[in-house]
Write a structure and sequence with these properties.
Blueprint (H helix, E strand, L loop, with lengths): L5 H16 L11 H24 L14 E2 L2 E2 H24 L5 H19 L1
Antiparallel strand pairs: 1-2
Helix pairs in contact: 1-3, 2-3
Length: about 120
Amino acid sequence: METPYLYLLINAFTLIGPLLLSFDKKVAFYEVLPKAIMAAFIVAVPFLIWDEIFTQAGFWGFNPDYLVGVNIGNLPIEEVLFFIVVPFACSFIYECVKYYFRSMKFKYIDRFLYFAIPIYALTLT
């Protein structure tokens, strides 16, 4: 069964919650929205380059049954949006956790993540 908008819908549903809830006065994510969008683009660039190289090399591909058919290079638009939408949504979740659990000492969690994420990334290669 073909569902040509499925990947696009996944991106949309991933984005809609954080985008709508950005204007909640408690978290006030709208105040850092431009920075969050810029950070998402900065994070997306190396992953998109890597994705493009591996797609060209034939290590992986994309099932056209789930895509709208618009490409940027060899990448479907849905894949490009994925690498922007997901970091944006993660930033939103992080800000919510910081607000709703503000009594916790996040500086230790932040320090742990600064070291754990790169080490984990190195183990994947």
